[in-house]
Every structure is written in C-alpha cells, then in structure tokens.
Amino acid sequence: MAPFLLALLPILLILVLMLGLRWSAVRASLAGYLAALLISVLYFKAGVRLLEYAHLKALMSSLDVLLIIWAAFLFYRVTDEAGAVKQIGEALPHLTADRGMQALVIGWGFAAFLQGVGGFGVPVAVVAPILLGLGFPPIAAIIVPSVGSGWAVTFGSLGSAFQALLSTTGLSSIELAFPSALFLGIAAMITGILVLHCTVGWKPMLRLVPIAILLGIVMGGVQLFIATYGPWNTASFIGGMAGLLVSFGLARLHRGTQSNAGNLGLKSLGVAVSGYAILVMITAIILLIPAVKGLLGGVVIRVSNPELSTGLGHIHQTGGKSISLLNHAGAILFYAALLVYLIYKIAGRYQPGAFRSILKGTVKRVWSPSLSILLMLCMATVMEFSGMTDALARGLADLAGGLFPFVAPWIGALGAFMTGSNTNSNVVFALLQLRTAQLLGYSAVIILAGQTAGAGLASVVAPAKIVVGTSTADLAGREGEVMRMMLPYIIILVLLTSLLTSIGVLIGT
Questions:
Q1: What H or E segment, with its residue span, contains residue 231?
Q2: Residue 225 sits in which domain range?
Q3: Is residue 310 part of a domain?
Q4: Domain-embedded: residue 313
Q5: Structural domains in the chain (count)
Q6: pLDDT band at residue 264 using 50, 70 and 90 as cut-offs
Q7: At a CB cut-off of 8 Å and minimum separation 6, what does 272 contact?
Q8: Per-residue confidence at 259, pLDDT binned at 50, 70, 90?
Q9: What is the pTM of this model?
Q10: Cα dihedral sign for 348, 354, 358, 359?
Q11: Residue 191 included in any domain
C-alpha cells in the first residue's frame, strides 16, 4: 500500500494546491514535479541515468504538444486581429431571432467551431458577449458556449489534447481516434438538448429537439469521419464548420417573430471565412498527398532510451520518441497562419502594428500553459520511468476492479477540472489509465477514449475556464454560482461517457 500512496502523493498535491489553495497551474505543477522527483529518488530508487532519459523524453513529448498549441493560437490571433472572428460572430445573429435557434447556431455550432481552431477559453470569451448582446441572461451566456463546446475539446485547438494522448501513451491515432471521436460524437447529440434546456427550459425546447439531434449527428458524425479517415487534427474544426453550414439553412426555417435579416456583407464575410478554408486546404495538401507528405517528412528529431532499471528492480523497456518537424500539425498550422496573414494584409484587414500585436498576444496567452504542460509532462514521465505509474495502476486495479471502465472517464474529468485542461489531464493520467487497463485485461483504447472524452467534456467547468467566462460577462465574483449551475450538465455528459466506456469494454472482451 505504501508504494501506491507515495505514487499518488504528487497528484494529490496538485489537486490540493489548485483547488484548495487556489495556486496557479504553473506553481502547482512545479510542486507536483518536485514531489515526484524526490519520491522517485528516495523511495523508488531512480538513478541519475534513468532520470536523464526521463527528462529527455519529457522534453520531446512537450515539444510534440506545444508546437500545436503555439501555432494554433498564432493562427487564431492572425484571424482575430483581422476582425474575422468578430465579423463571423456579428453575422450569425442575423440568421434568426428565435432564442432557441440562436443558442444552437451561436452557442453550440459557432462555439464548437472556435474550439476547433482556437481553444484556451476562446469559445466562451468570444460567444458570451454576443449572446449577452442578444438578450441572454449573463449566466446562460456563459453556460451555453461552455457546455456547447465541450464535445469539441479533445480534437480542438487543432488536436493538441489528442496529440498529448498519443505522445504520452505511444499508441497510434489509428487505434485511438475512432473510439474517442465516437464517444464525443454521441455526447454531441446530447449537448444540443442541454444547450436548449439551459436557454429556454423543458417545454419550449421540445419543438427544437429534432433540430438539435440533427445538428449533433452532423457535427459528431463529421468529427468521427475526419478523425478516423482524414487529418484528425482538423476533426473538431471541420465538424463545427459543418454544423454551422447546416444550421444556417435550418435557422431560415425558424427566424422568429422579428426579422433580423439585415445586410450580411457577404463579400466581406467571405474574406473573413477564407482564412479557415485555407487552413483546411493546406492541411489536406500536406497530409493527403503522399509526395508532399514525403517531401516534408525528411526532417525528423529522434531520441531513444535503452532498457533502464531502478534500485527496486522496476524495468523501463527500450523505447524512443520522434517528431517529424515539417509536416507536424504545428508546422501545418504555422504555414496556414503565415499564408492567411499575407492574404488578410493584402486585403487591407490589418491596422498598423498588427504583426507586433499578433505576436505579443500569442506569447502572452501561451507561455503560462506551456510551462505548466512542460512541468506536468516532466512529472508524468519521471513517474512512468521510476515505476510510480505502475504502482498507482496496481493500486487502482485492486481498488476499482470491475468498476474501472465506469470510473475511468471520471479520472479524466477530475484531471481536467484540476488542471483546467484536457491536454494536461491526458498528460497526467493517460499512462495510469493505460497501465491499469492492461493489468485488468480491459481494452486500453476504450479506456483511453473514456479518459480523453471525460476530460474534454469536464474541462469547460474547470475554475480557470469559469473565470474566463465571468470576466467577459461582467460576473466577476460569481464563479461559484456559474459552476453550480453548469455542473449538472457536465455530470450528465461524463456519466454518459462512463456508460459508453463500460459498454465498449464489454463488447471488446
């Protein structure tokens, strides 16, 4: 029992520091990393050589994830600085004056689209003010885009959380993409109904439930298809875009009693949307044309480790990590950001000093999460190499037993709530989930799909995300009230994921 409790200590420390003492993710992850380092040396007898290789892998895994995060937010800033996001947001309310349809189109479809390409609290920060302007109550203006974008988090931010899952576990997207996207796609269908309930209540929402289910099938289905057969890093983005396009037509059927048609400025709107079309085009060219993919695949960073052992006899097998730099998802995003910047600049969409503003805004937004991800990956990798993760998995297997498939998504949800990030939850808990599934004889890919789906759905109710919403809706100081009202919706979605994970394990055995 002592190895299990000691291995659990760094994770509990982060939980207490972030939720109890309200430490930032950076400070808490530093404390967790140092605790893991000390325990690995003093109790698990990790040597200097083992720790050197552990940190080398952590640096590589961090680079693998951070390249996407840096480039994703750079792309978002390029489009936002040009007014593209604002213009799309301003055009959407013209489609309908029906309150329920506004929630579905803007609070669900548009929020999911923004999650696909931006993430980092962008959906709530952008959508909440739009809903407020349309007369939504402030708390509903926060809850609707938060709940509405949760299903798109794992494959959002151009797949940074899913990349963390792949990078941490060493499994392939071919194995993990389908079950992960399937669980999230089913959650998407329920999400639309929850968005309607939050907006108009039970009875008024019934007339729009068929539309919500249809949009859920479209968005979840497109995400599932792209994640499985296409470039998975665009799955949420294209799924959200598909939902938006379909909702445009459906919104015309539910315009409401007031005409809000106005002048949409279609030519200018087309320029705004063109940036996202370019991203899809560049991604397809690089990832789907073998000659281009092969040409860019020649620059590879690779590290490997020999078989390593601790003083207690735990053996870490030979392994390695490689990153193809020029056709990496982060590189593709960077190419798209550069080309879109040039197009918007030629079109006169930027004010003087825009380039500096883009870079400054990007650095300001990503440095803190980047540091916390690096520290958490260092902690997770030290725990993996030293045998701490194995000790945790054995203890969890003994405690959970046959209930583990049901519990697994809640572990992911706890990690996301604790760290504010689906990515960080996958970094901290994916290896634990993998090892526990192996010990119990369950399908690892199903358990990991439950991990990342639970984490993505619950990440929107994390304290850090709630603060973003309350700050944009002028509800500072009422974070607890917002969280209490949002939690029932999130519990329903994570509970659904638990049931899907349990069913998936039964089918797979």
A1: none
A2: 2-305+318-508
A3: no
A4: no
A5: 1
A6: low
A7: 79, 82, 83, 84, 85, 87, 88
A8: very low
A9: 0.81
A10: positive
A11: yes
